[in-house]
Every structure is written in C-alpha cells, then in structure tokens.
Write a structure and sequence with these properties.
Structural class: mainly beta
Strand content: over 45%
Radius of gyration: 25 Å
Largest sheet: 4 strands, antiparallel
Low-confidence stretches: 1-8, 64-69, 118-123
Number of strands: 32
Distance between the termini: 51 Å
Shape: globular
Number of helices: 6
Helix content: 10-25%
Mean pLDDT: 86
C-alpha cells in the first residue's frame, strides 16, 4: 500500500462509518460517539443529526435559531427540541412555570401571540414570547409571558370586542364596541391608524397578498369591508348577509378567496368572494362571489395543505352535516365565475345539540371539532378517528398545531393532547394531561386559549368581572 492510500484511509473509514450510522437512532449514535476517536468524528457529522431532525419533525428552520455562527449545531438542536417535546408531552411539575397575568378590569374578549416560537420557527433559545390581550375595560395590553411583565397598555377607550396580531410586522389590530378599528405598534403600543365601521360587532381577518397588507372586517350590518396598508385605506365594501352580523370570516391558503357568512340564520349560505374583488375592485364590475351550496352554517375552516378546500359544518334536516368543498374559478371568453365542487359530505355523530361548534384542521386529511364536552377527530372522508370526553363542563376554545391540540373548558382546566403516527391506524391523537387554572371560588372557567411551540396562554373568567391570563411556559 503506497503513501497516498494511507492518506486516504481515514477519510474512507469516516465515510463508511457515517453510512453505517444512518441506521442508528439518537441514543445509539450518542453511545457510538464514545467508542473511539474515529467513531466520535463520524457520529458528530452534522448531516446525521440534520437527518434525524427532519425525520422526526416535518419542519426545522435551523437558520432561525440566531446567535453567533457555530454556537449551535444540529445535534444540540435535536437534543434540546426532544427535551422540550418531552416536557410538553408529560406536563410534569417542574417542567413548566405558570404565571398569572393580572391587570384587566373587565372581560378578556381575545388574546393572540405578537411574538412567539411558532411551530414552523421554533426559537428554542428565545424565551421572550409576547401575548396581547384585549378587554371590555377598554384597554389592550402586551405581556412578556415568561416573566409575567406588562410591557405596555393602551389608553382607556370604548370596550374592545376583538383583537388579532400580525406577528410578521409586529402589529396589533383591535375593534371596539363603536366599530372603531385600530392598529398598534407591537413593541411600544403606539397607535398607528384607525378606521370607523360604525358597527358594534366586528370580525377581523388580516392577510397578505404578494407582500401587500390587507384587513377584511365583517360587520353587524352583514357586510365585509376591506382595508389596505398601515393607514387602513378603504378598498371595498361588499354585502354578504342583510341584517345579520358576519361572524364567519376565513381566507384560503392560496389567498384567492374569502369565506364570509353568519351563524345566526339557518336559511342563509356563506359566500366565497374572490380576494381581487375586495382588494382591487373594478368600478364597473360586481364582486366575483358565489354562495356555498349549504345553509345554516355552524363552523367552517380551510384545509391548510390545500389551495382552496373548505370544510363546513351545517344543518341538514335534523342532523349536523360536514361538507368538504373545493373552490375554483372558471374563466370563459366573456366572464369568470366561482365554482364549487363537493369532495365529501357526511353526517356528524355529535352527542350534544350545542349551538357552539369549534372546528380546526390539522392537515389534508384530519379535522378536529369540539361541541359541548366532547372533542372529536375525524378524517375528511367521515371516519371517526378519536373521541375524547376529558372535561366536566363544555369546551370553550381549542387550539390546534402540528404538535398538539389544546382544549380550554368552563371547568377551569386545559387539556393537552399530542399527535402521534400509529403504524396501523395512521395519525391519531393521544390525551396527555390537565393544566389547572386556579380556584372555582375566584374564576368561572377558561374562555380563550392560544399557544406557540413552547408556551400556552389562556384567559380565566373572574367572578369579580376581572379576567386573568394564565401563562404556562415550558423550559428547554
């Protein structure tokens, strides 16, 4: 063997070991790294740990971790995220901290993350999540949920009815009981712009189209008003349901359609409206819209992995039916029209006649719905995948992401359930543990819940009229 062969031999050994180590899991890989110097170098190969990360989690944005170059590695990312997953899955005492965020003198009408660790951008080293809450006391507040610190509070005004956050631009959007819509700078709480709808009820929907910012507002007069840019410049107003408030307002994943409708009339159908008709309306043309072929809509959600597939729960005879529809545009030489194609339709087996039904979508073939005390997981073809009755009182709010499902209940508890892939049954949901919200002598139950990758925030209704936020932070 010549000298050149000897020089190449260590590289050949390392390459062969790396290929062999692709068959190992993380525990065996860690053990292998302590055998000898050659095995250690092979087992520390970033490609191996990146491969483990992508096999375990569908999305890993390592570039979003921040810090100095070389400060973090795929191995450290994998081990720390596994550690965090374990804490969130078990919910043991000591694995998380709980802060009570007090300050509101009224009912919390909504809360949203302004800055957090999303499922797609899990900043495992960033512990500065910020949540905004709006209240009937006429204030919107921003909180650091790890420390419990109040970051800013708006001046007192008319009672708020709705709040949403644009996390990308760090903007808070609110609506109050007079129909005044406002935007606030997320870092400072400075008011940026306002627009009056003269509506005591407003549903807010913020979205981007080709990096342009839009806000569509559903009113109690049955119309949707679309505003643009930070100045809240009015672009259009379209009638949806005369004399009934718009309380169903969704945008499709491809940003081509808005679904707008009401839950307050069993004879009315939601409408699909082309977003171009709202954001760039033509003066001499009617809005491009079409009624969905269902009436008595109780809940609706777009399927996140499809361009424009919507699931709708509605009345049919004396039962609740879930219909799945694909929305598209048919163009001819002289006109364009919105078309609906029914993909599936099936009766739901709900054991309650509750008027309030909560509906969320997990992926292209999984829906989560809650009614009364019952939580169900079903496929888009109608197969009932799982049923849970963990709460003693009705479920008031749910939150669904790719890792878990949260249910908030009037029994003053949160239930944490996690997704797992079963080799025989496919995707399924597993009930894990309760998070308790305090004393029933002080509170009447949870009303809202939200989460990011490493924390959970919920609002507890105070019996003295002063709601409190409960923030649970899982340490990584």
């Amino acid at each position: 063997m010549d000298a050149s062969s000897d020089a190449q031999r260590p590289h050949l050994i390392c390459d062969c070991l790396v290929q062999i180590f692709t068959f190992l899991g993380e525990e065996d890989l860690i053990i292998a790294s302590s055998v000898c110097q050659d095995w250690h170098e092979a087992a520390e190969t970033p490609w191996l740990w990146r491969r483990l990360c992508l096999r375990r989690w569908s999305f890993c944005n390592f570039a979003a971790m921040g810090g100095e170059p070389g400060a973090f590695s795929w191995k450290r990312y994998f081990l720390r995220r596994c550690h965090l997953d374990t804490k969130m899955t078990t919910g043991r005492s000591g694995g998380y901290t709980c802060k009570s965020l007090r300050g509101h003198a009224g009912k919390v009408v909504g809360l949203a993350y302004l800055q957090g660790a999303s499922v797609h951008l899990p900043h495992l080293w960033n512990t500065c999540a910020t949540v905004c809450s709006a209240s009937t006391d006429g204030t919107v507040r921003a909180w650091n949920i790890q420390t419990g610190q109040l970051l800013w509070c708006s001046p007192v005004q008319s009672p708020f009815t709705e709040v949403v956050c644009d996390e990308k631009r760090e903007v808070v959007i609110t609506a109050d009981s007079t129909g005044l819509v406002k935007t606030w700078q997320g870092q400072t709480g400075q008011e940026l712009a306002s627009f009056s709808t003269s509506s005591p009820h407003c549903a807010l929907l913020q979205y981007d189209i080709n990096d342009s910012w839009f806000l569509t507002v559903g009113t109690s007069q049955g119309s949707v008003c679309t505003l643009a840019d930070s100045n809240l410049t009015k672009r259009s107003s379209v009638k949806v349901c005369d004399t009934f408030k718009v309380n169903i307002l969704l945008v499709s994943p491809d940003r081509k359609y808005i679904i707008a409708g009401t839950k307050d009339n069993d004879d009315l159908s939601p409408k699909a409206i082309c977003t171009d008709s709202l954001t760039s309306p033509a003066e001499d043309e009617d809005p491009l819209c079409q009624c969905l072929p269902v009436t008595g809509c109780r809940a609706a959600v777009f399927i996140p992995t499809q361009p424009a597939r919507v699931a709708v729960i509605h009345h049919s005879l004396r039962s609740q039916v879930l219909s799945v529809l694909d929305i598209s545009i048919k163009k001819t030489r002289y006109k364009s029209e919105i078309q609906m194609q029914q993909v599936e339709s099936f009766a739901l087996s709900l054991s309650t006649r509750s008027q309030e039904i909560l509906l969320e979508a997990k992926d292209s073939n999984c829906l989560v719905l809650a009614a009364g005390q019952e939580l169900q997981v079903c496929s888009l073809k109608g197969a009932l995948l799982a049923t849970f009755k963990d709460h003693a009182l009705p479920i008031s709010s749910i939150c669904v992401d790719s890792f878990r499902v949260l249910t908030a209940s009037r029994d003053l508890s949160l239930r944490v359930l996690t997704w797992r892939n079963d080799r025989e049954g496919g995707l399924t949901l597993e009930s894990r543990y309760h998070l308790l919200g305090g004393s029933h002598t002080m509170s009447s139950g949870f009303t809202h819940v939200a989460c990011d990758y490493s924390s959970i925030v919920a609002s507890a209704e105070g019996k003295d009229g002063r709601d409190v936020l409960k923030a649970y932070s899982f340490t990584s």
